[in-house]
Amino acid sequence: MTTTHQPSTKQDILQYLLKQDQTTAQDLADALEISPQAIRRHLKDLEAEGLIEYKSVQVGMGRPQHVYHLSRKGRDRFPNRYDEFAVSLLDTLTETVGHDQVSSILRKQWERKGKEYRDKVGMGSVQERVAKLVEIRKSEGYMAEWHVLEPNKLNNSAEPQVILTEHNCAISNVAESFPSVCGHELEMFAAVLPDCTVERTHWLNQGEHQCGYLIKSRSQE
Question: Tell me: the pLDDT tens digits for 20-37?
Answer without folding.
Answer: 888 999 999 999 999 999
